[in-house]
Write a structure and sequence with these properties.
Layout: H1 3-30, H2 37-42, H3 47-60, H4 68-91, H5 98-116, H6 124-129, H7 139-149, E1 157-161, E2 171-175, E3 185-191, H8 198-201, H9 206-212, E4 215-219, H10 231-248, E5 251-261, H11 263-272, E6 281-285, H12 291-295, H13 299-302, E7 306-312, H14 320-332, E8 336-342, H15 354-363
Parallel strand pairs: 3-4, 3-5, 5-6, 6-7, 7-8
Antiparallel strand pairs: 1-2, 2-4
Helix pairs in contact: 1-3, 1-4, 1-5, 3-4, 4-5
């Protein structure tokens, strides 16, 4: 085997095994329930061992100068993936702090996706990975995305504004490659959970947004979490993010979705039910709720407001009875509530709901 064939084999092996492991990590993230950690860690099988072997082969390959940037990008994605797998296995050790270790591990998985995404421009298999699974054979969609990858107007892709991992109060944006400035696009404002970060939470939405042509803005709270005690603080932050995004891209102002996980879901209700909120649709996930949130809101804001409420029956932080109370209160106040109680969901983000949310966003009014 000559050097070129060895290099090709190393690239294909590393990228394929990185995506395989990330797919498994995605399954683990969706089904993460602390009591089930041992079974979930077993889902990895030998994926991380295979990736380690591929990574060693990839690193040992002889790289021409013009491919060093590609090498570094793919290597970084693999390294973050391996760290995520290592974290999941550490969480499964008896006596381990499951919640802390799994949270850290899944953050590494998000960093791996961020590192992998730029390879969509050179590897069709990676482009497919960032498309919803049921649309990966949609050649029209894949060709449209591929055509958009060569654009030079700087209007599509991933953008960060003062949103490095150690910064608070910034935001990240994803704009699909087939963005068309001549038509308005739905906007998703996605709020991370407590102690989370918008730059990482963005990746819960990229696959669905890329498939269905939505823009996603993922702000980072100004404090360690959203200003639940002083909603005006982060409400002003969201308004600033919205202003900057709508100034740069063509946004459909009748399809402005505010959504969030855990504290982000609670803040979705607190801020989104305010009479001055610009958001047309709300989708709180795994949120806390108090009846006063509705009682203190103006009837004209809630009446007819589309709300997509998601909660897990296994939620250990906010019991599902909280969501049932929220549904009853919002429904009684006249909101148009789509209630999704998921029997197999714990206190984690259900990525499989994002495409459904976008479909609901296109239909609800």
């Amino acid at each position: 085997m000559d050097a070129q064939d060895e290099l090709l084999e190393a690239i294909v092996g590393l990228v394929a095994r990185s995506m395989d492991a990330l797919q498994m990590l995605g399954f683990i993230a969706r089904h993460m329930h602390p009591p089930d950690i041992a079974a979930l860690a077993a889902v990895l099988g030998d994926a991380d061992t295979s990736l380690q072997t591929a990574h060693a082969q990839f690193t040992a390959a002889r790289w021409p100068a013009h491919l060093e940037s590609f090498r570094d990008q793919a290597g970084q994605a693999a390294s973050f993936t391996l760290r995520a797998c290592e974290g999941i296995r550490a969480a499964a050790v008896p006596g381990a702090d499951v919640r802390r270790l799994t949270l850290r591990a899944l953050r590494q998985a998000s960093r791996a996706e961020e590192a992998l995404y730029p390879l969509t421009t050179s590897l069709p298999s990676v482009s497919k990975f960032f498309v919803e699974q049921d649309r990966r054979d949609d050649q029209t969609l894949l060709e449209r995305l591929a055509a958009g990858m060569v654009r030079t107007d700087g209007q599509a892709g991933v953008f960060h504004a003062a949103n490095e991992p150690d910064e608070r109060g910034g935001f990240s944006v994803f704009v699909p490659e087939d963005y068309d400035s001549a038509r308005p696009h739905p906007l998703v404002m996605a709020l991370h959970g407590g102690a989370g970060h918008g730059r990482l939470f963005l990746w819960t939405w990229v696959r669905a947004a890329r498939t269905h042509g939505a823009i996603v803005a993922a702000p980072t709270s100004t404090g360690d979490t959203w200003s639940l005690m002083q909603p005006d603080v982060d409400a002003a932050h969201l308004a600033n993010v919205l202003q900057q995004v709508t100034q740069r891209w063509n946004v459909d102002r009748s399809r402005l979705l505010l959504t969030g996980m855990s504290d982000g879901g609670t803040f979705t209700l607190l801020s989104g039910l305010d009479a001055g909120s610009p958001f047309t649709h709300l989708a709180p996930v795994a949120a806390s709720f108090h009846p006063m949130i509705v009682a203190m809101s103006e009837a004209r804001r809630i009446s007819g407001l589309p709300v997509y409420l998601v909660h897990g029956a296994l939620d250990w932080m906010f019991p599902v009875s909280v969501a049932r109370s929220a549904y009853a209160a919002l429904d009684a106040a006249g909101a148009k509530v789509a209630y999704r109680e998921l029997a197999d969901l714990s206190h984690t983000y259900p990525r499989d709901e994002t495409a459904r949310m976008l479909q609901w966003l296109s239909e609800a009014n």
